[in-house]
Amino acid sequence: MKHLLALLLILAPVTSAGADQLAARLAIQELIAEYAFRWDSKRSADFADLFTEDASMERRLDGMLAAGSRLEGKRAILDYAVDSHNGRLAGRQSRHHMSGIRFLELGEDSALTENLVLITHQTAADPAPVNRSSGIYRISWRLTPEGWKMSRRILLTDSSGN
Predict the structure, then answer these.
(1) Is 31:23 a contact under the CB 8 Å cutoff?
(2) pLDDT digits 0-9 by tens, 1-49
(3) pLDDT single digits (tens) 58-73
(4) DSSP-derived secondary structure letter, 109
């Protein structure tokens, strides 16, 4: 019994740290799912709430920044979401199919993830969803008083040349 108690005292910090990492992984994975649901249901303000105040969002093709794709700050991300949902996506259902989530880094208050994404669109005239884009989301995360938030989101768009 004495040895068991000593072993538990040794393992307690590891178990606690492991539990914290597991909780962070689950929270971030849930937020990746929320990203898709909030965008695809055109909930612009809820979508923007996934980001820190100083967040950035951009799209890259063949490693190069796509012209006009970089947004700086949560307000710019919200404005982009509102414009997209009321403009180019009006009358169109988008779906973000997220998979293959992996953690490249995971610290106490920051993380870096990648996940695969297939983006489809469908209008009333489309008999089935149409593939619009695919790629990898590379997301930097920061733990805030409100929980985990995205501080940088990069869409590494697949190109037909690869």
Answers:
(1) no
(2) 666 555 445 555 555 668 899 999 999 999 999 999 999 999 999 999 9
(3) 999 998 999 999 999 9
(4) S
User: Furthest-apart CA pair in the chain: how many Å?
Assistant: 72
Domain segments of the chain as ranges: 2-157
Structure tokens at 161: 């040349």
Whether 155 and 71 have beta carbons less than 8 Å apart is answered as no
Q: Is 155 exposed, middle or buried (0-12, 13-18, 19+ CB in 10 A)?
A: buried
Q: Which CATH architecture has domain 2-157?
A: Roll (3.10)
Among 114, 104, 96, CA closest to 156? 114
> Two tokens at 48?
């923007």
pLDDT tens string 95-129: 999 999 999 999 999 999 999 999 999 999 999 99
